[in-house]
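Revision sheet: structure tokens.
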Amino acid sequence: MRGSLVITAIAVLAIGGAGVASAAQDAPTHPGNNFTVVEHAITDTVVDTGPAGDSLGDLLAFGNPIFDAHNHEQIGNDQGSCVRTKVGAAWECSWTTILPGGSLVVEGPFYDHADSVLAITGGTGRWATARGQMGLHARDAAGSAYDFNFQVNDK
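Predicted:
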């Protein structure tokens, strides 16, 4: 659902990372500091809070499955929300990606028609001291799946 919202004026949380290259590895049970996972955007729900249709302040909530870099095996999930900040152009998002060994929290922009880079603001377990960035890239025009390219720096 997110994909159609994102591609349309009601973009969804989708995750894109402009010019971000995908890591060639799966996210194993204990991924390294640079790895890619794939989100399947199947639960995205937009709450229209203002004027009918896409408008400033609309909300996007989601909790989606996360797959390995080859998009074959589910290895985790995510959960989060976004607020529409630029009609037809951008959302400001915050979410947690839960993987074997812990979770990573990101915050930043999601652009309707471009990749983006979000800040890694922390984590749990294996990533308890994590900082860095996550590139977000739509895998298709429908916005049904997104690459999350994590570049983790431990404090």
